[in-house]
Amino acid sequence: MKFSFINNPDIFIDNEISSISMGQKLFCTFTLHGDLDKTLDNITDKYTILYNKIFVLESPQSEELMCTYNIDTHNTNDVPLSHTILIHRKKESNTLYTINALNTLIKLLNNGVIDTKYPINWPEYRNSLILTNGDSIRKLETAIHSIINL
Fold first, then answer.
1. Has residue 32 been placed in a domain?
2. Rounded distance, CA 26 to CA 96, Å?
3. Rounded to 5 degrees, what are φ and ψ at 109?
């Protein structure tokens, strides 16, 4: 059975972007296949997209597509689009993750202890999105569905 993120509101950003530390941020907006064009329009209407690219990812473990894009938080104070999370990327392994998921992963690997210097074996998480689900993690294998050049 595939997982639905849209129906799991606990993972989404629910405060103003201005409350997130300023600078460039990588967002991920989840959307259904049939809503992709509308979601892309909403993203480009709301934000100035850095690098003029939106990467649309798919995963066999999820019903939704994941639109990933960089924004400059200096140019907006709005509440993020619905179904959107703030993510980070480990370039060497193309791993996407939330900070909460990274902390949960470290706790699971390090006998319950969060240690910011704990070495993660990033190749084990190559081309994936790591999310947390309470005290566990969910690793979604990702592949490029499309790249939108703006």
1. yes
2. 10
3. -80, -20
In a domain, 107, yes or no: yes
Residue 88 domain flag:
yes
The conformation of residue 135, written as its DSSP 8-state character, comes to T
User: Quick check: is 105 in a domain?
Assistant: yes
This prediction has a pTM of: 0.84
Q: Name the residue among 55, 10, 51, 3 with its Cα closest to residue 29.
A: 55
User: Number of folded domains in the chain?
Assistant: 1
Tens place of pLDDT for every residue, the chain, 150 residues?
Answer: 565 655 554 444 444 444 445 578 999 999 999 999 999 999 999 988 999 999 999 999 999 999 999 998 776 667 788 999 999 999 999 999 999 999 999 999 999 999 989 999 999 999 999 999 888 999 999 999 999 999
Contact 81, 114 (CB under 8 A): no
